[in-house]
Design a protein that fits this description.
With 337 residues, the protein is α+β, with helices and mostly antiparallel strands. It contains seven helices and seven strands. The strands form two sheets. It has a five-stranded mixed beta sheet, covered by helices on one side. A hairpin with a 2-residue loop joins strand 4 and strand 5. Helix 3 packs antiparallel against helix 4, helix 3 runs antiparallel to helix 7 and helix 4 runs antiparallel to helix 5.
Length: 337
Amino acid sequence: MGTPIGWAQLLAWNVTISFIWSLLTPIIYELSRRYTFDRASWKRSLPLHIVASVALAFLGALTLVAVNPFITWTKEPAVPFFAHVLSRTFMDIQRYWYVLLITQAIAYYGKYQERQLLSSQLEAQLANAQLEVLKIQLEPHFLFNTLNSIAALARHDGEAAEHMTLQLADLLRMSLDGVGVHEVPLHQELTFLQKYMDIQLVRFQDRLTVETDIDPRTLDTMVPNLILQPIVENAIRHGIGPRRTPGTVRIATWRDRDDVWMEIRDNGVGLSGGRGIRPREGVGLTNTRGRLRQLYNDDHAMVLEDAPSGGCTVKIRVPYRTRNEEVTSEDVHPSFA
């Protein structure tokens, strides 16, 4: 403008511009929030923001030009007021779009985070629902098999059938305590398994022997609730049941660095049952695989194979991780300690 400008005047001028646009920014933010540029509404929002940018830039320029004489405190060349306002308006329209783009970017980032959170919550709910379905399928399967055993025993040994019924009631009580719980410490799982084995020992009497080899370092690791019972049930029902001679089921666990292995082995008829054809997996094994996959993704293993000395072996590997609580051998049934 042909007139020297001091640093104090430049500072006053820019602070005034910033102050005026700080008053206009909440209006732009509100318009940005209500009229977004998503796929469904951008055609309606764009004209509105064009009009709003001109209107607010004009309002800001009008205010700025009006207070200009009080800010710069120097005489400037005579410029028509309206021409100065229009010039300032077209210079400041970009400020509206800067604020609009920033607020839109913040809004989109917020929506992205919200969708990510919602997606993770939905995935967790889906996984939880799938686990509940698998567990609900498993419990009636176990219950029906046990009731059939009681019915068979009641025909020739009423006292033993009564004892087995009481054991079943105790077992069901433990099962109800675990409703909605998908992982328990191994010592708790072994205690539940011992209750089940007590029922089977009454049924098979001297035809069944149970051996255990439990590594104390594995007792506090978290394992899927009711993970061992269906495998032991299969070993007894399909491995030991068809034998005419007594059979043995061996339960072992051991620690391998950051993993825990659980093994169920029987000396029964094996997978093919002497027919040379491997049968299709039933409810118990299928659900066990499904639950392991839901809980650990690919960080697990389940191996089903014929034992070298006869019978069948099932091995399960899960990551070693514990709940923050002290676990001692006193918490475990004596036969597993």
